[in-house]
Amino acid sequence: MYQSYKDLKVWQNAIEVVVEIYKLTENFPRSEIYGLVNQMRRASEAIPSNIAEGQKRGHQKDFLRFLHISYASGAELETQLEICKKLEKMKELNYIVVDKLLEDTMKMLNSLIRSLQK
Description:
Number of domains: 1
Mean pLDDT: 95
Helix content: over 70%
CATH topology: de novo design (two linked rop proteins)
Order of helices and strands: HHHH
Strand content: under 5%
């Protein structure tokens, strides 16, 4: 186990995803404040939060369970981003940075889950 979840590159990346989601959603229409903005921010926040909680539980089985939850939140966020890209008012926004960060984070989560399952 790591000394702290803060040492994990996947957690650090996930924090960057949250920051980029906040930046991106600042450009969404006001009508989405209680819709997609809220959902996307919560899903993005759940990714590093579950990594942290799972790691601090101190048992590998718990850590794995929370990593799976984190991974599921990442899939939720990917889905929400795809919806945004198809909506007229939001399809012209720049999703490149957040897409890349989220993709990298999902790959890291997948690798960490696989390595802990062995």
